[in-house]
Specification:
heterotrimer; A mainly alpha (637); B mainly alpha (101); C mainly alpha (204); A: 637 residues; mainly alpha; two-stranded antiparallel sheet; 27 helices; 2 strands; C: 204 residues; extended
């Protein structure tokens, strides 16, 4: 499908590819070791390095674009990592259409979030450590997407999991933050283990982990069953990392981390790693009959469950968290329909508007003096205009109102669903769009409109420009991404990604303009409904929600998934641990060990009776021995 | 000499056995000592008998050395017994029972 | 019957009898004297075996020196009375006799399998004893066994020194406490010691 250029033939600045992950790594190292002494400069250094990485990425991608579409691939071999017999893994970076998209998103959005964090973490004593972790995260994420083989990808995969843990639990003084970090790590671990088994499976079948080698010979080497096995195992990892059903429980709790963390890791980048993995491994998934349908179903279910749950949240960040889960469900849905380009475009668009809204919510929380409950906000638009208006831009993008990026993303997706003969998906996808409009409208109207419901809301103030500038830039991205990248299903980005992900599926169905109209109408209807209930004053909000009980409470508790896991897994787990500790270990193992000791002691108690103290007894024993020995010799004579 | 050498060796064996019985039965340290001397003598006899049998003097030399060493041993042993008697006012070996369970 | 046979068959029973006497006698002095008789008999055996030098040495060293020394110590310590009749260790006497008999039996078996009961002493010992037993012994001793000879002489010196040291009546060095005691016998040493020791509760 594509040919690789040997490094010696690389043109222009492509050999600088290694700088892209290395610059953030250097920042992390500096900040970890001498960050405390740098003070405020730590944040600026970190931001500068990520921005520099973005610059290098732009240069490198431009050079990539200069190459013709059929040969648009560059692999840079850094060093031999593992060489064991016939199994070799190199530390290889791969730049093609897919990874170039990802690195631009990661470094671009990443540098804006770094800039924002300077203001957000200004009063924190350990801000240098924070920036070190943030840089480290960017490094690992870049390693993940730039990896030319599954092992480098997995290295990045684990690394981002580690950084996620470190950053969620950054304010570890509060136990619930530490618990959230642990929960995130353990839940994703389940997926990671499945993925590792998948990698072992790949090594077993292919003898290598290199993408070119695996995807090139996949058809020949794998039976359908093997391909299904590998695909499902990799999918397990993706489900964990992207917080899909059934491993979605960690993402809402991960909001315990600082808001920039939520924006970067849990909206724009880390959680999208699962989507990236599925898209990257598409050749393997397509060899299986059931893998992609399963991806589709999981995406669909997640989208609906998380979308409804978002409707019942009262914490501003938790709404956004469930929204992220739901939007990721959309991306999985697209991948399941083999519309990989649509999934990737949605990823990029989502990165912009979700990061924007998270940063905006951080600004709101900052201005509200660490209040996160939306019921206590209100009327903030007047008091925080920049935050408010950029947030509204993001919200409109999410809802899917044209001509913002979100509309194009959802529209393509629904169009493909409709055209490839999946009416159920189309209808449910449309309902999902309605849900997203509803919950984001609810958020916006509760937070920014109406009158201030508390003292804090009265006295809220706008955030410093170091925090608002990134908001504006992201808002521009949210508006313009659609036009620039992909105004139709076969727009620029689809063409760009085609060499890697294949063609966009076509078909026949309703005309494109009809689908577009339906989509926009749904979005607007959702926003209007939200306005009616939450901002117009025509409906008593509290009474309305009370009449729907127990639905709001169920939704707020995320459809009781956490409680189900607690009953099904945590309680038996604790019981098993208790049995192991107090019965198996304390009684049996300790009993065995102590029993041996007691046995020896018992033997000694009996044995010591030989030591009578009488020399003559000992002499008698000597004689017995001597006589016996002589007898033995005598017998043999 | 017409007596078979084996008779001397048997005599030596009997005397040695008697010495052993003496060591095991008597409780007076000095009497045990004397039983040990009896054993040593029995062995000397055996040595000299075999020396005669092989027509060499090595056995006699060995017996000679054995006597010398036995003399030295008696000196030291009796000194020890005297020292112990001064401490405990007894030469009964059954009384020295401290090193037991 | 040839003379040496006669001599053997007279003195062998005597030596056995005196040995039994030694181990049976209550009185330590009597036992010692029986042992001296035994030594004499063995000396005669040596003579029968063409070892006149050792015959003399046996009498001089063993009967003359060692047994005299032992008798001295018995008298010095006044332990002539010997042990009482009752044996407190279970089965010690029967077992000892039994094992000794087994031992003799084993020697019998070994000798019969080895040299046999009919081997007589070979001729030609006179050639070995050239120039007399003493001269011959001296030559062998100072030629082939010179090193053991020297070491044995060192051993004897050590034994002499050891005996001197062990038998000393040593004065116990006087302790500071005793000096204090003699100076002021009214002082209560115990209280002063108690004040220096502080008893503290160790936290668990």
């Amino acid at each position: 499908m594509v040919g690789a250029l040997a490094p010696s033939e690389a043109t222009g600045s492509l050999p600088l590819l290694w700088l892209v992950p290395s610059l953030p790594l250097a920042g992390a190292a500096v900040n970890l070791f001498v960050g405390r002494r740098l003070g405020k400069a730590a944040g600026w250094l970190a931001t500068a390095l990520v921005a520099a990485s973005f610059a290098v990425a732009v240069v490198v991608v431009l050079d990539l674009l200069a190459i013709g579409t059929e040969e648009r691939l560059y692999v840079q071999h850094l060093f031999d990592w593992i060489t064991v017999g016939a199994f070799e893994v190199g530390a290889d970076l791969r730049l093609d259409a897919l990874s170039s998209t990802m690195i631009l998103v990661v470094t671009g959005v990443g540098s804006l979030i770094h800039l924002y964090s300077i203001g957000y973490m200004a009063h924190d004593a350990r801000s240098a450590r924070f920036f070190a972790y943030l840089n480290l995260f960017v490094f690992f994420m870049l390693v993940l997407v730039l990896g030319a083989n599954y092992l480098v990808l997995y290295l990045g995969w684990e690394g981002v999991g580690l950084c996620s843990y470190l950053l969620i639990g950054f304010w570890y003084e509060k136990t619930e933050n530490a618990n959230a970090a642990k929960k995130a790590f353990v839940t994703t671990r389940i997926g990671d283990t499945a993925m590792m088994v998948g990698l072992a499976f790949i090594v077993w079948k292919f003898g290598t982990l290199d993408f070119e080698a695996v995807f090139g010979s996949a058809g020949a080497q794998l039976t359908e069953a093997a391909a299904t096995g590998i695909a499902l195992l990799l999918l397990g990892g993706a489900i964990g990392k992207s917080a899909q059903i059934p491993l979605q429980v960690w993402l809402p709790d991960a909001m315990a981390g600082p808001t920039p963390v939520s924006a970067l890791i849990h909206a724009a980048t880390m959680v999208t790693a699962g989507v990236y993995l599925v898209v990257r491994s598409a050749p393997l998934f397509e060899l299986s009959d059931i893998a992609l349908p399963i991806v589709l179903v999981i995406g669909l279910v997640t989208m609906l469950v998380a979308g409804t749950a978002a409707l019942g949240q009262t914490d501003i960040k938790r709404v956004l968290a469930y929204s992220t889960v739901s939007q990721l469900g959309y991306m999985f849905l697209a991948a399941g329909m083999r519309a990989y380009a649509a999934a990737m475009f949605m990823l990029v668009a989502h990165a912009f508007y979700k990061a924007l809204m998270f940063l905006g919510s951080g600004s709101v929380i900052h201005g509200m003096h660490d209040e996160q409950d939306m019921r206590r906000m209100g009327g903030l638009l007047r008091r925080m205009p920049v935050t408010g208006w950029t947030f509204i831009v993001g919200a409109i993008a999410l809802a899917g109102v044209p001509p913002l990026a979100g509309f194009f993303a959802k529209d393509q997706l629904l169009e493909i669903a409709n055209h490839t003969g999946r009416p159920v998906v189309w209808i449910l996808g449309t309902i999902g769009a309605l849900l997203s409009a509803l919950y984001i409208g609810r958020l916006v109207f509760l937070t920014f409109f109406g009158s201030a419901r508390t003292e804090q809301a009265e006295h809220a103030h706008e955030s410093p420009s170091v925090m608002t500038v990134p908001l504006v830039i992201l808002a521009i991205g949210a508006i313009g991404a659609g036009f620039v990248l992909n105004s139709t299903a076969e727009g620029r980005i689809a063409h760009y990604l085609e060499p890697v992900v294949g063609e966009v599926p076509h078909g026949d169905g309703l005309p494109v303009w009809v689908l577009g109209t339906i989509g926009s109408t749904v979005a607007i209807v959702g926003l209007v409904l939200a306005w009616l209930v939450y901002a117009s004053g025509k409906v008593d909000r509290a009474a309305f929600e009370e009449r729907l009980e127990p639905l709001p409470r169920t939704l707020r508790n995320g459809w009781y998934w956490d409680d189900a896991y607690a009953k099904l897994l945590v309680v038996p787990g604790k019981a098993a641990a208790r049995v192991t500790a107090f019965v198996v270990d304390a009684k049996w193992v300790d009993g065995l060990v102590n029993g041996v000791g007691r046995g020896v002691g018992g033997l000694a108690q009996v044995g010591r009776l030989l030591q009578t103290g009488f020399v003559r007894s000992y002499a008698l024993v000597f004689l017995v021995g001597a006589v016996a020995l002589l007898a033995w010799i005598g017998v043999r004579l | 000499m017409r007596t078979p050498i084996a008779y001397f060796v048997m005599l030596s064996g009997v005397l040695f056995a008697l010495g052993t019985v003496g060591v095991l039965i008597r409780r007076n340290a000095l009497l045990i000592f004397m039983s040990v001397e009896l054993q040593l003598n029995a062995v000397n006899l055996s040595l000299i008998a075999f020396s005669r049998m092989h027509n060499e003097l090595d056995g006699q030399i060995l017996a000679f050395f054995s006597m010398v060493v036995a003399a030295a041993e008696v000196v030291v042993g009796l000194a020890i017994i005297v020292a112990i008697y001064r401490r405990r006012q007894s030469v009964n070996v059954d009384d020295a029972r401290e090193l037991r369970w | 019957m040839p003379l040496d046979n006669l001599v053997f068959w007279v003195f062998a029973p005597i030596s056995v009898a005196s040995a039994i006497g030694m181990i049976v006698m209550r009185n330590a002095v009597h036992a010692a004297l029986f042992l001296v008789v035994n030594f004499f008999c063995i000396a005669v055996m040596y003579l029968l075996l063409d070892a006149p030098f050792l015959f003399a040495v046996q009498i001089i060293v063993y009967a003359g020196a060692i047994m005299v020394l032992v008798l001295f110590v018995i008298m010095l310590l006044g332990v002539a009375r010997g042990d009482d009749l009752r044996e407190r260790l279970i089965a010690q006497r029967p077992l000892a006799v039994l094992l000794a008999l087994a031992f003799v039996a084993e020697i019998f078996v070994a000798v019969r399998a080895g040299i046999g009961f009919s081997t007589k002493a070979p001729d030609g010992f006179d050639a070995v004893n050239e120039g007399g037993n003493t001269q011959a012994l001296g030559e062998v001793l100072f030629r082939d066994y010179f090193l053991p000879f020297e070491i044995t002489s060192i051993l004897l010196i050590i034994a002499a020194i050891a005996a001197t040291v062990l038998a000393q009546r040593r004065a116990r060095p006087i302790t500071q406490a005793e000096i204090e005691q003699r100076r002021s016998p009214s002082t209560d040493r115990g209280a002063a010691v108690d004040e220096q020791i502080e008893v503290r509760e160790v936290p668990r």
